[in-house]
Design a protein that fits this description.
Layout lengths: L2 E2 L2 H21 L5 E7 L3 H17 L2 E7 L5 H13 L5 E4 L9 H6 L12 H8 L8 H12 L8 E5 L6 H10 L3 E5 L6 H6 L3 E4 L17 E4 L3 E2 L5 E2 L4 H4 L5 E2 L6 H22 L1
Helix pairs in contact: 1-10, 2-10, 6-7, 6-10
Bound molecules: NADP nicotinamide-adenine-dinucleotide phosphate.
Length: about 280
């Protein structure tokens, strides 16, 4: 039976540390604040934003929600970003994705000031991550690394396979694993011999968005499996990209869904926000 890597426990620890750092800043008269821009009325986005507000409240971080209707123009969003960038009382800025069709995601993300980019999505932070400079790391892959480290596993020299190559999860997860000196393979929808490649992994990070795609025969006995997926199974129950019940029998450690990577992602956002506030306060 695998060790369960509890996102709940790890996230609680991270948020406790954030809370202490928030209090330290508040004693100096600085009130850490995260501004979230939400455009349109996508129900899933509304749920994510509410989660972020709740996390902020728990950590003592002020959250400021800026809502735009679904027909907002790109310029309106860019103007708001400029305003928030200049606002000294705002330390972190996040634009909730996806954006409506009339707004170009890349243009908007690039307009977030890098020093307030707590999602780590701007080209400046992505570039810095790539060359190993201090920067805001994207929350989901950063959370995956923390979860891997929590098992006590030495990543150096290990065979790590990342399933999925999205800009927000797969690619940055691969870079961060490489920085930990793992030997990294990235798989995607065109990969040949996917099963064989996965079955050789000491570490398997899965982010493809396909319910229970990774089966027991794709996982090496004892491997550490990080399941980023968030899907609904045929009964409408929340599940990951990994067939948890089967893989749990042979893996060394595994993250559950729910209660895994999602919670750590949220905690890492809080960590980035307090980091932003501390850095801006030191300037
Ligand atoms: P995405 O942008 O849709 O990318 C999916 C990736 O998986 C693509 O690179 C795609 O390959 C690859 N893929 C799809 N089907 C495949 C297959 N049959 N075999 C091999 N590779 C395949 O997804 P994402 O944004 O990275 O999200 C992935 C999952 O993680 C989703 O379930 C999402 O909800 C979840 N997620 C969770 C969190 C969290 O906090 N827990 C955060 C972000 C995302 P191609 O590039 O070749 O198309």
């Amino acid at each position: 039976m695998a060790q369960i890597i509890s996102g709940k426990e790890l996230a609680a620890k991270v948020k406790e540390q954030v809370k202490t750092r928030v209090q330290a800043l508040q004693q100096r008269g600085i009130n850490p604040c995260l501004a979230v821009i939400l455009v349109g009325d996508d129900p899933a986005s509304a749920v994510y934003v509410r989660g972020k507000e709740k996390d902020c409240e728990e950590c003592g971080i002020e959250s400021r929600l800026i809502r735009f209707s679904a027909d907002a123009t790109q310029q309106q969003v860019l103007d708001k970003l400029e305003e928030l960038g200049k606002d000294d009382t705002v330390h972190g800025i996040l634009v909730q994705l996806p954006l409506p069709k009339q707004i170009d995601e890349h243009t908007v993300i690039a307009a977030i000031p890098p020093e307030k980019d707590v999602d780590g999505f701007t080209p400046v932070n992505v570039g810095k991550m790539m060359i190993g400079q201090p920067c805001f790391l994207p929350c989901t892959p950063a959370g995956c690394i923390e979860m891997l480290k929590s098992t006590g596993m030495q990543l150096s020299g290990k065979n790590a396979v990342v399933l999925g190559r999205s800009n927000i999860v797969g690619k940055p997860a691969a870079i961060l694993l490489l920085q930990q000196n793992a030997t990294v393979t990235i798989c995607h929808s065109r990969t040949e011999n996917l099963k064989e490649i996965c079955a050789k992994a000491d570490v398997l990070v899965v982010a493809i968005g396909k319910a229970k795609f990774v089966t027991q025969d794709m996982v090496k006995p004892g491997a550490v499996v990080i399941d980023v997926g968030m899907n609904r199974d045929s009964d409408g129950k929340l599940c990951g990209d990994v067939d948890f019940d089967a893989v749990y029998q042979t893996a060394g450690a595994i993250t559950p869904v729910p209660g895994g990577v999602g919670l750590m992602t949220r905690a890492m956002l809080m960590q980035n926000t307090i980091q932003a506030a501390e850095t801006l306060a030191a300037e």
